[in-house]
Amino acid sequence: MRPVKKIVISLALVVPLAVLGFAHVAKTAPVITRFTPQAKWCGNASIVFFPGGPAGGVFANNVYNGARQAELDLGPKVRYVFSDWDPQKMTSQFKEVAATKPDGIAVMGHPGDDAFYPLIKDAEAKGIIVTSQNTTLPRAEKEFASRGFGYVGQDLYGSGFALGTEAAKRAGLRSGDRAMVWGLLSQPTRGLRTKGVVDALKKLGVTVDYLEIDAATNADPPAGTPTFTGYATSHRDVKLVVTDHGGLTATLETYLKSAGKKPGEVFGAGFDLSPATLAGIRGGWINLVIDQQPWLQGYLPILQICLTKLYGYAGLHIDTGGGFADKGNVEFLAPLVEKEIR
């Protein structure tokens, strides 16, 4: 039995020594650093933020909610400017807010580089930090990245192509089948996402009927109901509808019902989650959605401007990605969708 006694004695000695060792670690001196973390460390900054759409609108609310959280966390004074997704309104509003000389402006890039670049260049010359979200402004980003011009949003063409490819696959489309794409090809950069969808479908031999979203529907998606009804009744063989707009995707159930369709009769696909889109997925009206995490498109541009103003950081290019949501996985996200976070 002697070996057993030796083992017991050994454990009795080891345990106190281990405890003493941990106690020694706990008593080590704190890390020496010259940086002192602060709450609301961006409290002296003034920022103008563009959520993009109408106040209270689909998608714009998620972006706005992210920006508001950043405002609360970081402490800057933020003014919010809503634009009804109208590129001309965005540029005119930019001129107005730049004249007030805020520390920074976070813009939606829908007007494109040709329209925005001269305005951004002028603002930068006045010492205003400018950054972008949702839609890229490649020329401005390339020139002013060192001054804090970044981008937070999707790879527009890539996400469109991915959705078109996946939607066609799940809908079981074959060469010669008909699909409708309702998008924004007329907008220089924003239209790349629509182009991605169209290119993906055409690559598969699908017949694509393209409809441009008019200004009224862009600002108020239910206004497009007569347009959709007219199309669907004259193209009864349509098998897939892709809406390249969060607000229109949220209205797909209304559109399909107005055209006399039943859930699942036409495969519905689009972009962005919202409470109405969630209801449409649950009801079988919307079959596939790609989520670009718009809350981040609100939070991170505010952070970008603060990082540049206080610490001189260069612009960050952040792809908010795009996972697919459908009836099989959307319940995981549902609580966040209902709060307009996802």
Automatic annotation (TrEMBL):
It is found in: Cell envelope. Residues 50-302 form the Periplasmic binding protein domain. Residues 1-28 form the signal peptide. It comes from Candidatus Segetimicrobium genomatis. SUPFAM superfamilies: Periplasmic binding protein-like I. The keyword Cell inner membrane does not apply. PANTHER family: ABC TRANSPORTER PERIPLASMIC-BINDING PROTEIN YPHF, D-XYLOSE-BINDING PERIPLASMIC PROTEIN. Keywords: Signal. The keyword NAD does not apply. Pfam families: Peripla_BP_4 (PF13407). One of its GO terms (cellular component) is outer membrane-bounded periplasmic space. This is Sugar ABC transporter substrate-binding protein. Belongs to the bacterial solute-binding protein 2 family. One of its GO terms (molecular function) is carbohydrate binding.
